[in-house]
Amino acid sequence: RAVRTIAEIPGDGANALLRTALNGPDAAVRGQAALALGARGVADAIPALVDMIVEGRNDVDAADALSGLASRPALAERIAGKLAARLPDGSAAPPVRRRLTQALADIPGATATRALTDLA
Length: 120
Known about the structure:
By secondary structure, the protein is an all-alpha fold. The chain has one domain: Alpha Horseshoe (Leucine-rich Repeat Variant). It contains eight helices and no strands. The N and C termini lie far apart (41 Å). 35% of the residues are buried.
């Protein structure tokens, strides 16, 4: 609840608190912080958002946040690279691969296109 309350406060001070929560020990708190930071356009949330997709924790919300961040071309390539890196050899369980593929489909750019083509 605290993270959701902080997320409603605008400004760099709230972002700093959310970044601190992003590195905390509680997965639920980290997830809420990542979603809030992603919605604010803060790239620091990308690794946690990718982890959420892999783990299946609020994966649809995490993919939506990544899609929003990917509106910036440089971030789109970075996001696609992190998502694609989690798919390398087919060792990921089918549900994980499906979630990663769905997230990649919403990311523009050459890296995402290449990763999706390789999956076909």
